[in-house]
Amino acid sequence: MSTMAFLKRSPWILHYDASSCNGCDIEVLACLTPLYDVERFGIINTGNPKHADILMITGGINELNRAVVRNLYEQMPEPKVVVAIGICAATGGIFRECYNIAGGVDKVIPVDVYVPGCAARPEMIIDGVVAALSILEEKRAKMTGAAQIKDDARHAAGEST
Amino acid sequence: MPERIVVPFGPQHPVLPEPIHLDLVLEDETVVEAIPSIGYIHRGLERLIEKREFTEYVYVAERICGICSFMHALCYSQGIEEIMKIEVPDRARYLRTIWSECSRLHSHLLWLGLFADGMGFENLFMRSWQLRESVLDVLEDTTGGRVIQGTCKIGGVRRDIGAEKLAEMHRALDPFEEQCRNLGDVFLNDETVKYRLQDLGVISKDEAYALGAAGPTARGSGVAIDHRETGYAAYGDLGFKPVVETAGDCYARCAVRVKEVYASIDLIRRAISEMPEGPLDVKVKGAPDGEYFSRVEQPRGEVVHYLRGNGTKHLARARIRTSTLANIPPLVKMLPGAQLADVPVVVLSIDPCISCTER
Amino acid sequence: MGIFQMTKTVLRNLAGGPATRQYPAVPARTGPLTRGHVVFDPATCRSCSLCSKRCPCEAIRLDKEAKVWEIDRMRCIACGDCVEGCPFGSLTMEPEYFAPVVEHVVERYTITYVKPEKPAKKPVDESAGA
Amino acid sequence: MQTLLFLIVFPILVACLLLFVKRTTIRYAVVALSALAIGGASIYLLMRYAFEGAVYFAAPSGAIDLAMVAIEMGLALFIIYMGAKFRNYLAILLAVIQAALVVYLEMTFSGSLHAANNLFIDQFSIIMALIIGLIGSLIAVYAVRYMETYHHHHPEVRDRQTFFFFVTFVFLAAMFGLVFSNNLMWLFFFWEITTISSFLLIGYSETEEATKNAFRALVMNLLGGVAFVVAIVLLAATEPTSGGIDLARVLASPDAAVVLIPVVLIGFAGITKAALMPFSSWLLGAMVAPTPVSALLHSSTMVKAGVYILVRFSPVFAGTFAGFSIGLVGGVTFLVASAIAISRSDAKSVLAYSTIANLGLIAACAGVGTYMLVWAAILLIVFHAVAKALLFLGTGVIEQRTGSRNIEDMEGLIVRMPKMAVMMFIGIAGMFLAPFGMLISKWAAIEAFVQVPFGLIFIAILAYGSAVTVFFWAKWMGKLVTVTQNTERVEKGFFEESWAPLYIITGLVIAAVFLFPVISSMLIEPYVLAIYGVTAHLADANVAIMLLMMALLLILPVSFLLFKRTARHLPAYMGGRPATPDLHFAGSLGLTREAQTRNYYLTEYFGEAKLFRPGAAVCIVLILVSWILAGVAL
Amino acid sequence: MNWLIGAVLFLILAPIAGGLIAGIDRKITARMQGRVGPPLLQPFYDVGKLFEKERAVVTTAQNFYVLAYLIFIALSGALFFAGGDLLLIVFAFTLAHVFLVLGAYAVHSPYSHIGAERELIQVMAYEPMIILAAVGFYMVSGSFYVTEIAATTVPAILYLPGVFLGFAVILTIKLRKSPFDISTSHHAHQEIVKGITTEFSGSTLAQVEIAHWYENVFLLGFVFLFFAWNPVIGVVAVAITYLAEIFVDNVTARARWQAALKSGWLATLLGIANLAILSYMMLGGA
Amino acid sequence: MTVNEEQTTIGVALEDLMREVEGLQTGGYRLVQIGCTDIGGAYEVNYSFDKGYQFRNLRLTVGPETEVPSISGIYWGAFVYENEMHDLFGIPVAGINIDFKGTFIKTAEKYPFSVTRRGGDRCRNA
Ligand code: SF4
Ligand code: SF4
Ligand code: SF4
Ligand code: SF4
Ligand code: SF4
Ligand code: SF4
Ligand code: SF4
Ligand code: SF4
């Protein structure tokens, strides 16, 4: 059981455009580029849920992407956090009242950090990731803790039989 | 005899930032069938017109898409102005032109970056987006928003650009152009880029026209349609010629955009030097009654806002047909025969903007 | 000859050093017009409700009776329309962004403006959270 | 000598007995017991003669010679009859030419048509005998059950199983005869028997295609046969210097130039029988036959006769340009056939091309013929025989069980037929992975070619060829190991007995790696030493490393236990689209589609249509060149 | 006992060296792109992180193959640094890759399979050149043993410039660098998601990464052999070669598989031409 | 050089639609868009064409259930608009070359723009 917490130093993100207007979307991408360079923090945009630790979603939930968002979330190994980028992802934003928008991302999966803004700006997105890191770390601690408990239980069971 | 491979491509896919899905049928890696399907971003904002007054709807129109948000606001505003017979002040027309072209610049640079990313040329992506940031800085300094400008309104614009700022922008144009030309050289001359782009996804001139292709997709095939030729905003005063390439392949579409970057810089330069003085807007009274198909040349081609007022504060109908929707039929024709590795390149070559396509 | 066209850029990048803006060590770049977040001054608001009417996102709610002015930060698109529309200058657009949060935030203010001849200005009870 | 005679005669007796056995169970008993006897006898042979070097036996001739000629005439008549029946006049023509030549030979050179010793045995023959006796007879055992099911699946095919097993055992007998003969006339006799046997077996199902392919095999082999007789005529005509028809004397002939032409002709016969290009098509066509036939033809008999003869004569080829160009025929065949294998999805077709490729490689070694290369060639023969037999038999089982022998349909075999999949896995690994035999042999070949003048050509061929080989085997392996969901197991219920030969052969593939140093030092090295006076062997350190690798491979699966515990199972990545575990997803146009994973066949580069003709053309030219060079040498 | 020391040192030090090289690589790449880039130790953080993640698999079998991949990559590297037979090392190396490919095949997933096919195409593209390079060393030093090749006093590079160039081409494939990062890529997004590693996560992915470190050190060792007659020049040459690879990575678009295959095979032809001339000279000289 | 844009709208009867469209096609017009408007109980379908920035609009008025023929035989690319027409308005279109069968744009509420759509909540402040 390590206490090293590498997780905080190597958060890999998966970005999904739920139903954003592209505004927040391109700002997420802009984070990768030389001026913001989030790789400074060890962040890599993996594009593959199996490799990701942070799910960044822009845009609200609509009829079709509901299942996609859930699917992507489920494909990510624990521990993982969800960062909702932009007010669309928080509440549906300006499109909140559209017939095809069910609301923010939290309608489908638990959201850990909301980054407000329309569009959210690269700096805010960086702040959002930083906020997510401590939550990620908490979840990891809880996870190893749980595993430890399970392990102990197994040992106890093993000894008693 | 190759076997058929069926691959679900998207909606989530690292190369395509927006959700579009393709059912790819491949033989080895050659595409034999690619049926696209969309709908992941459909919000239904056309009906939001029922809930927003026509003046407020500009904010919605801007958020049809965050990349050419200004163009949507412009197209919408021009449509309403046409219906309401509003004469926009000259300075506003020029400012609109400058912001339009800044949007085109940042959009094309963004696209060039994504395109490079699609080809697996990471450094080129980085470089394109680095240059794009200078445009965004200008946009932020002059409008207050990097990607959503919020300066266009019915009857004019909400903000002015001061003389000092204009002069500063003008000074910055030359070095910026040089950087862009260096970047363009890579896209146009690098052998590995050429190898990836030439003879790929070819659409002939006749085909492009018959399929209703728009924007660089049409112009890359030699079809000279560019709505700026109709002289809306200040384009009529500035003189404008569409950029046209004839090969009809991905390289040609890329070349059109590269050269449009240069052209945009030129337009901004001229707009700044010919900037008239005067008011920024006129007061809007009453409500629109009538209909108009407002058309504007976006980075991706012509967008059509069909607006229909009924004399109340709420329009009866706003229908937005964007360039990407028009470019989907050509895309369907381009894909078969390409390699799997080319799929993102071909898809990106029409510069798909799903957000506005699905509204 | 067309091979390695990118060389120039690479060399320039190596020589020139990174272009990165070292956020957060260096504060975020903003301009005077930058639309960050809306700030409300409860001392001057006269409850005219123009802001709430103009807001395209229904982010502002005003309860004239209870003298409560609320802004839902998770709805505001920072368009600035309310700021432009407020006839009393009670709203300003600050260039700093509203920081990321872990829960929805609705800011609620009690309007302290008092109609009488001499408007007393004292900010009271500012509570965040929902 | 009794053992030798036993191995030749006993299968014939069994064959005759089997003509009268109609019940499968009894047939199984007979075949299994005779297999035991034959296998036992070949192992006895090993123990008896392994340390003795070449031993010659003056077997009785005279009457036997006459009988042989009589049988040959009879066979010629049979071919003429069949040719007339199926209107294949080329076969008739070749049979007539051949018969005429034999008659001419007997009439003109009867004086020089005797060998001091008709039979002999040395380490190389022992190896061949082991292959025939163990692998061949195991295939025969397997065939009993297979053929029963075969007729169950193909009611339209006339049930001629008694005949089938008769021919099979005659075939084995002929193979034994072939590798024990010191008299070239005898050798030729057995050679012809194998031709006819394979003709009969390929045409077993009597369909139009089978008949056509059987005739193609016949014609090509007869062509080789004609060359063989011509060679014998030449040898007989130059008896004093060439050594006549006595194999040992020919090999030791003082006048290499004289024997070169006949040996090149015999080499040509070997090329046809070993199905090198341009004669590969007969072996490919032979796929129409029931799978045990393919297994026989590819692993232990027929084509092995072809390369046997090439390797036998390789001391004559060594250092000659004629030999070098025969080697090149092999090399080109190796490269082209390996490449074509990439584009095939039919398992038997892949196996066939791989056989052709490996025979090509053996021929390349034999043609160039340095001591190291001969050493490598014999290694190749051994390892190829075991692994290929396993693969063919496995493919047969899979086909009978799943109804398809397409590699794509073997996807998920590890779930559906785990035991079979593991055996196939081992078989395939045996074909191209370190530390299995085929790879060791290739490695040896590379080390050997480095030291040959112009060996660089072969190095290049080997480098490209083995890369290509990795591609097509690994992708097949990949299909086997894919863990598919929701597929039922279909392994149970298969005739349990037919697993026995598979288990044994699988064991042999693995054992071959561990026994390889023994095989090499006990059989191959002494043989090479006897002929060349020097011998090759692998460095001890390398042998140790290989054994270590093998041990690692065997231990690794144990690590499986480590993974079982805590892992959470996720569905496969489908672009975010919700999908079922068996990969059905919501596609465009409102259709539900299934994601399909298929191998690549790269037909654009490696298609049969693209490569076969050029390859064949090059080989024809090379064969002609070899004749011309042989002529020039004279 | 020298050989044992070499092997053990490799097994212990190679991951450290490999991780550092990866860190330097990422830093330099970032600088070439005008960025700051990650901390030098980032690769270790990444791998550490991966070990902290939950074990998630599509099928348990995938882990088995990846472990085998790691073991055999380490083994071939260890054999190399123990001074073993180059050909045997090359074959062990191929075996390792086949395991990686099988790991991807084991998962019934379209992207994984496409990655596997592409990896095999890559193997097909580079294998001839590696074999040829080994043969080249034999022709120069008269031995296939790394110990003896390394001990030769002749500068191999002077005899084998074509082979070295050819090897540099396939080195690009092996280091998974653009233009030949077709089966999986360390950066820039790819049409096949992550190709061969799409379905690997957590510690399994970490093992792939560690194997890659081993592999890189081994490959650089291979490069060193060309310059082995002078260790100083050798080390410098290795560094320059690696820098050149990073540079090429940053100035090219990704190629299609056809180009990867053709380049690999053309590189081999270059090597063959080199060896042909060499053997002609040796024949002539003899 | 600035071209003046002109927009003309011509009403067209259902039975003349195909003929008119073919006429425009032979006349060298390109298809710009097809769009619908709910005019209360019926739909207006606008087929918009353009040639040298001269905008021509064929306007078809149909009842809610009337089947409209597809023009995708004449303009191949029309399928995107026609599928949209079906999915958003519920207008049946016959014979589309690539028929998504109602899956082109999937919506939470079926035919969100149809004349029969529920509610008349035109005011958000109700
Ligand atoms: S929050 Fe604003 S910018 Fe972001 S996606 Fe939504 S509308 Fe677009
Ligand atoms: S084309 Fe549409 S989605 Fe794309 S940038 Fe323009 S407005 Fe936005
Ligand atoms: S609910 Fe929203 S839109 Fe309505 S009055 Fe309040 S703030 Fe304005
Ligand atoms: S800034 Fe715009 S969105 Fe925000 S409260 Fe004001 S009007 Fe509403
Ligand atoms: S903030 Fe301004 S606009 Fe809003 S209610 Fe108060 S005074 Fe009126
Ligand atoms: S004003 Fe009232 S009645 Fe009219 S639409 Fe709005 S809510 Fe309905
Ligand atoms: S009356 Fe009309 S304009 Fe006024 S709020 Fe209602 S719908 Fe909007
Ligand atoms: S919100 Fe009030 S003022 Fe506006 S339309 Fe509705 S009822 Fe009228």
From TrEMBL, chain B:
Domain annotation NADH-quinone oxidoreductase subunit D: ranges: 120-283, 287-359
The protein, known as: Hydrogenase-3 component E
Entry-linked Pfam families: Complex1_49kDa, NiFeSe_Hases
Organism of this sequence: Methanoculleus chikugoensis
Lineage of origin: Archaea, Methanobacteriati, Methanobacteriota, Stenosarchaea group, Methanomicrobia
InterPro entries: ComplexI_49kDa-like, NADH_Q_OxRdtase_suD, Ni-dep_hyd_lsu, Ni-dep_hyd_lsu_Ni_BS, NiFe-Hase_large
Binding residue positions for Fe cation: 68, 356
Binding site for Mg(2+): 46, 320
Residues that coordinate or bind Ni(2+): 65, 68, 353
Gene Ontology molecular function terms on file: ferredoxin hydrogenase activity; NAD binding; nickel cation binding; oxidoreductase activity, acting on NAD(P)H; quinone binding
Keyword set, alphabetical order: Iron, Magnesium, Metal-binding, Nickel, Oxidoreductase
Cofactors (names): Fe cation; Ni(2+)
Automatic annotation (TrEMBL), chain C:
Top-rank taxon: Archaea
InterPro entries: 4Fe4S_Fe-S-bd, 4Fe4S_Fe_S_CS, NADH_quinone_OxRdtase_chainI
Gene symbol of the encoding locus: nqo9
Protein name, UniProt field: NADH-quinone oxidoreductase subunit 9
GO CC, one annotated term: membrane
Lineage: Archaea, Methanobacteriati, Methanobacteriota, Stenosarchaea group, Methanomicrobia
UniProt entry tagged with the keyword Disulfide bond: no
A Pfam family: Fer4_7
Keywords, ordered alphabetically: 4Fe-4S, Iron, Iron-sulfur, Metal-binding
The 4Fe-4S ferredoxin-type domain, residue ranges: 36-65, 67-96
UniProtKB/TrEMBL annotation, chain D:
Subcellular localization: Membrane
Topology relative to the membrane: Multi-pass membrane protein
Domain NADH:quinone oxidoreductase/Mrp antiporter transmembrane, residue spans: 181-460
Keyword terms: Membrane, Transmembrane, Transmembrane helix
Transmembrane intervals: 6-21, 28-51, 57-81, 88-105, 125-143, 163-180, 186-205, 217-237, 257-276, 283-311, 317-343, 350-369, 375-399, 420-440, 452-474, 502-524, 544-563, 611-633
InterPro entries in the record: CPA3_Na-H_Antiporter_A (IPR050616), ND/Mrp_TM (IPR001750), Proton_antipo_N (IPR001516)
One Pfam assignment: Proton_antipo_M
The keyword Mitochondrion is assigned to this record: no
Claim: Membrane is one of the keywords in the record: yes
GO cellular component, one term: membrane
Domain NADH-Ubiquinone oxidoreductase (complex I) chain 5 N-terminal: start-end pairs: 110-149
Protein name: Multiple resistance and pH homeostasis protein A
Organism: Methanoculleus chikugoensis
Taxonomic lineage of the native organism: Archaea, Methanobacteriati, Methanobacteriota, Stenosarchaea group, Methanomicrobia
Gene (name only): mrpA
UniProtKB/TrEMBL annotation, chain F:
Positions of the NADH:ubiquinone oxidoreductase 30kDa subunit domain: 27-95
Xref: InterPro entries: NADH_quin_OxRdtase_su_C/D-like (IPR037232), NADH_UbQ_OxRdtase_30kDa_su (IPR001268)
Segment forming the signal sequence: none
Gene3D superfamilies registered for this protein in UniProt: NADH:ubiquinone oxidoreductase, 30kDa subunit
The organism's place on the tree of life at top rank: Archaea
Any Pfam family hit: Complex1_30kDa
Name of the featured protein: Respiratory-chain NADH dehydrogenase, 30 Kd subunit
The organism of origin for this protein: Methanoculleus chikugoensis
Record lineage: Archaea, Methanobacteriati, Methanobacteriota, Stenosarchaea group, Methanomicrobia
